[in-house]
Design goal:
The structure is a single chain. Helices cover about 30% and strands about 25% of the residues. It is an alpha+beta fold. Strand 9 (about 175-180) and strand 10 (about 185-195) form a beta hairpin. The mean pLDDT is about 90.
């Protein structure tokens, strides 16, 4: 309901809205979590039928990589909703994922720009063009995940469901999952979760491991996730092999791999994170327009 806001705007008044607060279905005040102000801004823009939503922050826009890790990182002029969703979910913290989801649903362009300069920022929008897209748009590094491995899990139908149903029932989001090839009717299952849920997930897994008679549980905090994102990957073959070759040439071991149509993510040792991002950024020539 925006009638009151619209009336004040018609009277040339500036409206200030608390960005990170919301209301539950029971009419209780709650917070919207990290980046909740982004979500509020997009929701208001949609409700007011604005042409676009401008979000002012402390950076000049969306970059090809974190400039603190890659000094040669370049500001991206335009990026698709799908690419931004992947970057946000893989560790880029410029925009909140839910804000991008709402913007995509209602096809509302978002402009991300700096509060401190007049430079043009980055436009996040639905890109419909015949111009060839770059293979890779950006690279992210996430260091806020942990890897949990359950060793010698009985290899029979339903075991994975038992493990991950117990985790889901506690409201824990699982990111990447890898199951080894079965040997002597047992297998290892590894998965990653956010650090905020790490110990809660570990307690659940230890209990489940006893119930299913798994051998042991390994908890590893020394991991990072490096991800490359680009809609151009849909129409180009060999991107994954190129990523793996680049990491191998820098003696970086890959522990887990996850792919989607426009994203390739690898779990590596945390100390190798910066080196991996710089190597991939250079290999895919993201410093060049």
């Amino acid at each position: 309901k925006t009638k009151k806001i619209e009336k004040e705007l018609r009277d040339d008044k500036i409206i200030i809205v608390t960005g990170f607060q919301g209301m539950t279905p029971e009419k209780e005040i709650t917070t919207l979590g990290r980046g909740g102000s982004d979500l509020s801004a997009v929701a208001l823009a949609v409700a007011l039928k604005a042409d676009r939503c401008e979000i002012y922050t402390d950076v000049e826009g969306i970059f090809t990589a974190d400039p603190r890790l890659v000094p040669q990182a370049r500001k991206i002029d335009c990026i698709t909703f799908d690419e931004m969703l992947e970057l946000a979910s893989c560790g880029a913290q410029v925009l909140q994922t839910r804000a991008v989801e709402v913007a995509k649903k209602f096809n509302l362009p978002i402009c991300v720009r700096s509060s401190f300069t007049k430079k043009e920022g980055t436009i996040v929008m639905e890109r419909k063009t015949l111009i060839e897209e770059p293979v890779v748009r950006g690279i992210t590094l996430a260091t806020d995940e942990v890897k949990i491995t359950i060793c010698n899990v009985p290899d029979r139908p339903g075991i994975a469901a038992v493990i991950f149903e117990a985790i889901a029932n506690r409201g824990i989001n699982v990111d990447m999952i890898v199951q080894n090839v079965s040997h002597k009717k047992v297998t290892d299952i590894s998965f990653t979760v956010g650090k905020q849920d790490a110990h809660k997930a570990l307690d659940i897994v230890k209990r489940i491991a006893k119930e299913i008679r798994a051998n042991r549980v390994i908890f590893d905090e020394d991991v990072a996730k490096v991800s490359i994102v680009g809609v151009g990957m849909r129409s180009h073959s060999g991107v994954a092999s190129r990523v793996f070759k680049v990491l191998a040439s820098h003696k970086i071991n890959i522990e887990m791999i996850s792919t989607s149509e426009i994203n390739i993510s690898c779990i590596i040792k945390k100390k190798e994170g910066g080196k991996a991002v710089r190597a991939l950024h250079k290999a895919f020539e993201l410093d060049k327009k």
